[in-house]
Amino acid sequence: MEPENRNLKAVTVLVKAADAVHGVIKKDAAEHGLNPTEFSVMELLHHRGRHPIQLIGKNVLIASSSITYVIDKLTKKQYVVRTACPDDRRVTYAELTEEGTALMNKIFPEHELSVNEVFSELEEEEVETLIESLKKIGYKAQQR
């Protein structure tokens, strides 16, 4: 039998770690009545401000066909509002409402603490190495 392929082991560890981190995000979001996708959209709008709906999917890694549904849900919760672009009728922006901004101002620092706790076992240099390594893997996987 061949020795264990380290790359296959790395994939297993990567997927399990990603699932565990996603669980933290899911828990943080659920505590405030959001799912992880809604939280990701709100986080994007919180940090970048008004954003074209057509581009949100690329930034939060969800299918463009799902983004309308997510924005609809956030609109019903009164966290997000749509605004038409005055210069291009094809473009519609999403932005946080005052209520959405207040929620993100409350929950994002808590979320940041949760993520910091997850990464607390790593030194700053290890986190930088992890980021660079994952970028290389991601770029290579995109080329396939």
Automatic annotation (TrEMBL):
GO molecular function, one term: DNA binding
Keyword Transcription regulation: yes
Ranges where the HTH marR-type domain occurs: 7-139
Keywords: DNA-binding, Transcription, Transcription regulation
Segments crossing the lipid bilayer: none
Pfam families for this protein: MarR
GO term, biological process aspect, one: response to stress
Gene3D superfamilies named among the record's database cross-references: Winged helix-like DNA-binding domain superfamily/Winged helix DNA-binding domain (1.10.10.10)
Keyword Amino-acid biosynthesis: no
Designated name of the protein: MarR family transcriptional regulator
